[in-house]
Prior knowledge:
The chain is an alpha/beta fold. Helices cover 32% and strands 17% of the residues. The longest helix has 22 residues, at 33-54.
Amino acid sequence: xxxxxxxxxxxxxxxxxxxxxxxxxxxxxxxxxxxxxxxxxxxxxxxxxxxxxxxxxxxxxxxxxxxxxxxxxxxxxxxxxxxxxxxxxxxxxxxxxxxxxxxxxxxxxxxxxxxxxxxxxxxxxxxxxxxxxxxxxxxxxxxxxxxxxxxxxxxxxxxxxxxxxxxxxxxxxxxxxxxxxxxxxxxxxxxxxxxxxxxxxxxxxxxxxxxxxxxxxxxxxxxxxxxxxxxxxxxxxxxxxxxxxxxxxxxxxxxxxxxxxxxxxxxxxxxxxxxxxxxxxxxxxxxxxxxxxxxxxxxxxxxxxxxxxxxxxxxxxxxxxxxxxxxxxxxxxxxxxxxxxxxxxxxxxxxxxxxxxxxxxxxxxxxxxxxxxxxxxxxxxxxxxx
Length: 386
């Protein structure tokens, strides 16, 4: 989108200023016109065709984003939110009943303790983010700390998606029928996943043995609350899940008709909720977009297991900061959305235009090309690929 100058834009109703070649839409500025005629338009054209084919002209269009609140939510996460926001906004301008739904993956396990958090919190690794206490005693839970901070930043940008908490949705039983279907179809799911796995040197007997004990559902132990569990059986008639905890050695079980204390594995969970919410569009980072990755496998599973058309998809590269990827960060090393800093991103969008970086509550600049950034641009995949 042009050269490397910085065009300051004051966000209406706030003290924020955004710098970049083509600022993202916060109201109806002409600055966004060129971008809307570029990748936003092309994505929306595809989404419209998809909705007409799979729903109807009067149907609600669901555009989805999602974040796991496992630590400070950083600049890179904003990229997904803004992509969905802009596409939803354009669809509304075209007369569609479009909605931006944001998924909080607060039923994910804590994988590691972020920088700046008491190392003693390692005791909670493996437990649901929604159930872990706030390390500073200020919020209802560990997950809520980061969800509230990010939500506040979005509100400053006048972005108000409909939020869905996975911890609530799972435990309320809203996904129960989909979980049952996945457990009944566990062998078919195993076969799909196996198609995309790196070749494993194993005999037919070893392959069959792995398949026989595979379940795409991970239980949170009722004793230690960790997900270090292994399902041992599933009874379809009663929806009874039996499991063994490999951490505390507790053996237990429950009927999914009575409670849901666990979640589908990620590569099944993602297409399951696409199907449940009837999602029409969702972007994701390049790590989810390679052959055999979550997006590829998910498009198979949503069709073969949940019998729903897959949503339109777009992938984007990560935001760079001083040569580092802003895909996943640890604690204070992240650029939080409310931090004042200078950063850049390089690459090409799906229509061949160089994209600007983005940041809220701060100064955004796009670095002039150096030998290093030119080299990086040459190896990065498209930041947004239709």
